[in-house]
Design a protein that fits this description.
With 488 residues, the protein is mostly helical. The chain contains 18 helices and no strands. Helix 1 packs antiparallel against helix 5, helix 6 packs antiparallel against helix 12 and helix 8 runs antiparallel to helix 9.
Length: 488
């Protein structure tokens, strides 16, 4: 018989989520600064989505693995999720220190892979924490607290270029920065971010004790049914072939058909062998038996996360181009830096509105009477924020638009997870949260491959049009919410 989890105090919920603050501080720095860093290092604007591939790929690969492995882990000393959080925090902190010292585009791109690997490794266990530690009555509060941590952490990240001068830290570029052009307004926040990740994660490690497993079932190897075996075979072959096709495409466009075939067959063979590992078999079996609500949420996540990366990739560039007359860092360096800083302030307001609205979302959902309808309303509100950027070149337009979008962000960080957590079996909370985060990664991956194909044609080589496309995607996601048959 399953024991009912006791109610936790607000501060116990706060402590178990506090490490999420540092993780989201790191994500906030990445989201606001990676496009400008690439531009400082000389990257072409149309190639920026491809340079952001690290995020979705590492999330897609790591989060389900960490979820599946942690579901079957337990240590009386370390717990179940906490070891993965700590290792991810250490890896992410190292990348945060090295990132602003990049000298070449390839170096920044490589460190972004490392940073995303660390942050994704730490983020998935925090999502599983809410399902592990809280009963169904307290889960809305748990996700609301995490949503607040997202908003507050990213607010601090984006306000750093304005806070540091008040504290007496010079934002003037030093001589050794002239080689790579990355200013102190970017450099110092990354150093602070590295410390923040470690401090907040250690706080959670010290103040939170995980519940031990109710029985020893987590130790027993999973016995696959015949239906699961068929499903594993299908997903096994499909994913290996899909990875091979992508590898062929990348190699072909960067070399020739012989190079493409070599990489394609190599990835096909390697991918097929890797997917035979037990942890991947369990993930593939979970794909076949995922709850109906989770399948229905796919389209909501697809449209949301096809559009959202465009905001991080192009908001600062659009503000610099239209509000500060600086289309790139070469033609108007001072204007481009001011535009980048203003973009950071816009993301700060985005995060403030997320933090403010996060504690009201459970009440709003209760008043509306439906989680899916509540989420659809917030997605439409966010779409209006994106469309607002077309109305004026004034810098305040971008600030107001991002403030409105922040309300939507608070819902994105809580409502889908709340709908999911009520539908998945508790013994598979980790693996399903990991796969669900894969629902975030796949559309990002598709977007980063496809947007460069039509950026200069359909979007007119204009970062502001990319924001409009993001708004259209939010409308489609809102409509998709009504495909979800949520649990009351």
């Amino acid at each position: 018989m399953t024991k009912q989890k006791p109610n936790l105090t607000f501060w116990q919920i706060w402590n178990m989520s506090f490490g999420f603050l540092g993780i989201q501080y790191g994500f906030g720095l990445q989201q606001a600064n990676m496009s400008p860093i690439y531009r400082y290092l000389g990257a072409d604007e149309a190639s920026i989505p491809g340079l952001w591939l690290a995020g979705p790929l590492t999330g897609l690969l790591l989060q389900p693995i960490i979820g599946a492995v942690s579901d079957r882990s337990w240590s009386p000393t370390w717990g179940r999720r906490k070891p993965f959080i700590l290792v991810g925090a250490l890896l992410g902190s190292i990348a945060m220190i090295l990132m602003p010292n990049s000298s070449y585009i390839w170096m920044a791109a490589g460190l972004m892979w490392m940073l995303d690997a660390g942050l994704n490794s730490a983020m998935e266990p925090f999502r599983a924490f809410v399902g592990d530690m809280l009963n169904e009555k307290q889960r809305p509060l748990g996700f609301a607290v995490q949503s607040f941590m997202v908003g507050f952490g990213q607010t601090l990240a984006n306000l750093m270029p304005y806070i540091l001068p008040i504290l007496g830290v010079s934002m003037v570029m030093s001589d050794n920065q002239l080689a790579n052009g990355i200013p102190n307004s970017v450099r110092y926040p990354f150093y602070i971010g590295a410390a923040s990740i470690l401090i907040t994660v250690i706080w959670t490690m010290r103040t939170t004790n995980e519940y031990p497993p109710e029985n020893d079932d987590y130790k027993k190897p999973h016995v696959f049914s015949e239906e699961e075996k068929k499903s594993i075979s299908f997903w096994h072959l499909s994913l290996a072939v899909g990875a091979a096709i992508l590898a062929f495409g990348f190699a072909y466009f960067s070399g020739d058909i012989a190079n493409g075939l070599k990489w394609g067959f190599g990835v096909l063979a390697g991918g097929y062998l890797v997917l035979m590992l037990p942890v991947f078999k369990e993930i593939l079996a979970s794909l076949s038996s995922m709850p109906t609500v989770m399948r229905q949420l796919w389209w909501v996540k697809f449209f949301t996360w096809y559009g959202l990366p465009l905001m991080w990739q192009y908001l600062s560039l659009a503000a610099a181009k239209y509000a500060f007359n600086a289309p790139d860092a070469t033609s108007n360096p001072a204007g481009f830096e001011e535009g980048t800083k203003w973009g950071g302030l816009c993301f700060a307001m985005f995060s403030v509105s997320c933090a403010v609205v996060s504690f009201f979302i459970p009440r709003i959902a209760k008043a509306v009477g439906s989680n899916r309808a509540t989420h659809a309303i917030f997605l439409c509100i966010g779409a209006c924020g994106f469309f607002l950027t077309l109305l004026s070149n004034d810098k305040m337009t971008y600030l107001i638009g991002m403030t409105i979008i922040g309300f939507m962000w608070g819902s994105i960080m809580s409502m889908p997870y709340l709908m999911l957590s009520a539908a998945v079996p508790k013994e598979k909370m980790g693996v399903y949260m990991g796969i669900f985060n894969g629902f975030i990664c796949v559309p990002q991956f598709i977007g980063m491959l496809t947007v460069p194909l039509f950026y200069k044609t359909i979007l007119g080589d204009d970062p502001r049009n990319a924001l409009v496309l993001a708004g259209i995607c939010m409308i489609c996601a809102a409509a998709s919410c009504f495909l979800v048959k949520e649990k009351n």
